[in-house]
Design goal:
CATH topology of the domain at 5-30 and 37-252 and 293-431: Sodium/glucose cotransporter
Largest sheet: 2 strands, antiparallel
Radius of gyration: 23 Å
Strand content: under 5%
CATH architecture of the domain at 5-30 and 37-252 and 293-431: Up-down Bundle
CATH superfamily of the domain at 5-30 and 37-252 and 293-431: Sodium/glucose cotransporter
Low-confidence stretches: 495-509
Distance between the termini: 38 Å
Order of helices and strands: HHHHHHHHHEEHHHHHHHHHHHEEHHH
Shape: globular
CATH class of the domain at 5-30 and 37-252 and 293-431: Mainly Alpha
Strand order of the largest sheet: 1-2
Number of helices: 23
């Protein structure tokens, strides 16, 4: 559908609102604690919305919905529902430890537990991963999502006579740099407080917009019709849900075989999915920074439970519409993507295409703002966290240990701007992988098993020696590369099932069907979640062996902060209810 003046005005008004509120809320950021941790004054509702808005972005609306569009279906929801259970563990166990010490960054904890070298290794890992995996993916999917809704590439072809390939490329780069520059402006000046206030606005728009897409999709499925200028006329919600369930019975199962290449049940319940979940929600500066900025432990715990509630709902406003897009417009989406594009990326256009077809003009502008806000929420959180790690863990430690708080804020602002530019430069990289969601999950796998082993081993093995931290952080990426890289080499230039259709490159051979190469592919081709679990178990075995051989003479002691770490009186009730709700969802959609 064509972009209307109302769409453009709605979008611009939303962007101005976000920038204005964020800069106003953070106008008095002077100290490093103000800039990096919002003065440790964040309330639970800001923390909860910020956790969700920072986490949910267009890699979910584009990547996760794309997976649902293809073979995986509702099983991809395990990434959301099991995250809720993981967050309960963070609220009950990890957050109290971190606030009691009073750390600014997650690598800082490793210095207290091991030494400064271990802290530096983790800081470098996080900086690299944020730029390569997180920020690049957010910008790429954000640009793809906006282009999928408003077809900027077609506008370039029609108005400037460009070839489809050149128009696709220009639309991609235009989206990347526009999102990056706008999000960086208020993050550079406002720090974490600007981030969380923008998250509040953008997170609300994101959830409301997603609910509207689900509502209209169900009406269309339930007998509604598309109007000429966009929107759905008539249709029954209940009938739409019944028709949807009957048509997608096979896709509405969250439990897939143990050896499924994407979401195996063994990894979901007892294996590899817990490794990235514990890393992402409990040990990842990008997420934990807002809980570290809580007024006290009770506010942080309440904020986490609010985020848990939204995590349980999100599959219904992202995954279900992704499946609907296949039912309603599957062939149209493949045909549209095939013109000047890569047909294997059809899933990535599923959700944006659905929006462009079923949203009326005045709501398309709202959803454009919601998608742009989703991208900026995650992007500004990422560059703020990366600049925090650079300033606190690297610059202050090695370059200028006596830097004043004002100097730290100044360096943090410079670092934020530079990191934003680097992310924009490499943002097209995720497009070379077969799926955006797979890309980001696999890249995190290089560092998450080692980081989780370093933290959990350090906590559960109080006499583990210093060498343990360094060993698992350095060994983890090497072991993961040995498990994953051979598969990438074997699949290079071959036929690969992308979950939508079989893509065959000219002159390519099939994956081998026998002999040593097939055996090799059999191991390296299993789910990356299984490989992460294997790597983690090896690393923990290394830690146990080193602790047995060279234990510390006495357990490590940690500093004590003056933060109020009294547990919220209902924390175990709330956490238990979240876990029970998660179990109920798995029973319903087994």
């Amino acid at each position: 559908m064509a972009l209307t003046l109302l769409d453009i005005l709605t979008f611009l008004a939303f962007i101005l609102l976000v920038v204005g509120v964020s800069l106003y809320a953070s106008r008095k950021e002077e100290s490093s604690e103000d800039y990096f941790l919002a003065g440790r004054k964040l309330s639970w509702w800001l923390i909860g919305f910020s956790l969700i808005a920072s986490n949910i972005s267009t890699e979910h609306f584009v990547g996760m919905a794309g997976s649902a569009f293809g073979r995986v279906g509702l099983a991809i929801a395990s990434y959301e529902w099991m995250s809720a259970a993981t967050l309960v563990i963070v609220a009950w166990w990890l957050l109290p430890k971190f606030l009691r010490i009073g750390i600014y960054t997650m690598p800082e904890f490793l210095e207290y537990r091991y030494d400064g070298v271990t802290r530096t290794i983790m800081a470098i890992y996080l900086l690299a991963a944020y730029v390569i995996a997180l920020l690049a993916t957010v910008l790429y999917t954000g640009s793809q999502g906006l282009n999928g809704v408003f077809h900027f590439n077609q506008m370039f072809v029609e108005n400037f006579g460009m070839s489809p390939e050149a128009a696709n490329s220009l639309a991609l780069y235009t989206g990347i740099w526009s999102i990056g520059i706008i999000a960086a402006i208020y993050t550079v000046f406002g720090g974490l407080k600007a981030v969380v206030w923008s998250d509040l606005i953008q997170g609300g728009a994101l959830l409301i917009g997603g609910a509207i897409v689900l509502y209209l999709g169900l009406r269309l499925t339930g007998g509604g019709t598309l109007s000429e200028d966009g929107g759905v006329i008539g249709g029954s919600l209940s009938e739409g849900w019944n028709i949807f369930k009957a048509a997608n019975a096979e896709k509405l199962h969250v439990v897939l075989p143990w050896n499924d290449p994407d979401v195996p049940w063994l990894a979901v319940f007892v294996g590899g999915l817990w490794i990235p979940n514990l890393f992402y929600w409990g040990l990842n500066q990008f997420i934990t920074q807002r809980t570290l900025g809580a007024k006290n432990l009770a506010e942080g715990q309440k904020g986490i439970y609010l985020a848990c509630f939204f995590k349980l709902l999100i599959p219904f406003i992202i995954v279900i519409p992704g499946i609907m897009a296949f039912d309603l417009f599957g062939e149209e989406i493949k045909a549209a993507v095939a013109v000047g594009g890569d047909i294997s990326k059809a899933g990535e256009q599923a959700y944006p295409y659905l929006i462009s077809r079923i949203m009326p003009p005045f709501l398309r502008g709202v959803m454009l703002a919601a998608l742009a806000g989703a991208v900026m929420s995650t992007f500004n959180s990422g560059i703020n966290s990366a600049s925090t790690i650079f300033t606190i863990d690297l610059y202050k430690k090695y370059v200028q240990p006596d830097a004043s708080t004002g100097q730290q804020v100044k360096i943090g602002r410079y670092a934020t701007a530079i990191i934003a530019v680097l992310a924009c430069l490499i943002a097209p990289l995720p497009g070379s992988f077969k799926g955006v969601f797979s890309y980001i999950q696999e890249i995190w796998g290089f560092i998450s098993p080692g980081i989780v082993a370093a933290f959990l081993g350090g906590i559960f093995l109080p006499r583990a020696p210093v060498i343990c931290g360094r060993a698992v952080l350095l060994l983890g990426p090497a072991l993961y590369a040995m498990a994953r890289v051979p598969k990438w080499i074997l699949e290079s230039g071959r036929k690969v099932d992308h979950g939508i259709l079989l893509i065959e490159k000219p002159g390519a051979e099939d994956i081998p069907v026998g002999g040593f190469e097939q055996t090799l592919y059999g191991f390296h081709g299993i789910s990356f979640l299984h490989h992460m679990a294997m790597v983690f178990l090896v690393l923990m075995a290394v830690m146990l062996w080193l602790t047995w051989r060279r234990p510390l003479p006495k357990p490590v002691t940690y500093p004590q902060s003056d933060i109020d770490v009294r547990t919220h009186p209902s924390t175990y009730v709330y956490g238990t209810l979240i876990i029970l709700a998660t179990i109920a969802l798995y029973i319903i959609f087994w």
